[in-house]
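Data availability (excerpt). All sequences and predicted token strings are deposited with the supplementary files. A representative entry, Alpha/beta-hydrolase, is shown inline so that the format can be inspected without opening the archive.
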Amino acid sequence: MPRETKLAQDDINSSAIFQLSNDTEFAFVLETVLSLSNNRGAATAEVLRAASQITPGDFESWYNEFLYLGNAIHAKAAAIDSSRFPVSAREAYFRSSTYYRYAPFFLHANASDPRINTLGALAVDDFNRAAALLPLPAENIDLPASSPNIPGGDFYVPARFFKAQQGNAKLPTIIVGTGYDAAHEDIYHEIGVEILERGWNVITFEGPGQPTVLRDENLGFIPDWWNVVSPVVDYLETRPDVDMDHVALAGVSFGGELIPLAASREHRLSAVLAIDGMSSLYELFEAGFSATNITDLYDDGDYAKFDEEIWALEYDSSETSLRWMLAQSLFTFNTDSPSDWWSRLPAFTVNATMLANISCPVFIGEGENDSSAPGQAEEMVKAIGKNATYNLFRTDVGAGEHCQIGAEAQLAQVAWDWLADTWDHVRLPTNLTNVVA
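Structure token line:
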């Protein structure tokens, strides 16, 4: 879940957490992969070994090392008799899935590179092998959906349901969506395991612009995210093991903007969590470009020159973060035109009116060392009013990074305890920062 808006390499407080590369974007994504070790999506020594072999800033070096690791761990998994040793096979397949998933992470400047889809499919296959070996196997579902922003109108929302316990007892259920770059397989390790351990069901999903829908349906991001989320809620209504009075919706990273957007129209939710809060990716990019005249070119209608300048930034920059961000933006919006991407971005902004339309309690998190969306989380809290609860996750205890990467236990303690209290109608302060131990 790398930070979508990081436009300069020197914006990380290097004292926040130990850096695994002297390329700060590589360091951050390595931290992301390493953090999955907390819930068995990776292994520390495996990731640290890869980190030691990767040439900073070299995208092919990154690809080769994670491909090697994915192949090696996949081979170990495939050699295990899963009927006798299901735990061993499951754990290895989860890890190989992660390494396959992250191998092509920096290849998106060439959207037609066949390695992107090949490795993406391998990652999903290995995750499904692992999830089938859980004590309660995960269920894969393709949910029909429609949007006026989709050519032809119709598409599918890939989802995966994880039961918390055997049988059909009606249980609280959390819907969790991801953001600008991560897959919903990541979500299982990042926060899904923590939710299941609390006795609640989890359903993860992806929409247009996210890996599975991009790969299988060739669809980029759409602003009407309620048309992605509502089919998931519809599906939950058909299940006998879901307590529809206790369904919450959570979004991670750019999902912290997409999920409030959806909740402004979808009112069958008992709570919403933005991890972390973000109201306008467009405004963040605009601020990032403020030192240049690039946006002036667009505003003046010189779209060809705007495109040239964006491409020049992407291909000529020595900054990995900038190169990745621009490539990822065009990739996830499924366009080769920067001006097309820029024209579509404002529609994703969650304004005060939309936030006021959210009809349930909302948790807004923010990392103290996260420079992705400065000030936006607190602005969201003000716009939502009495239904909002804010928490600043502190750097001095390792939780200050974007989406609390690496401090998943602290995130779970605060977010899911807040949710339990909300469901139990416990009166809480609007700011938990100095309240939660």
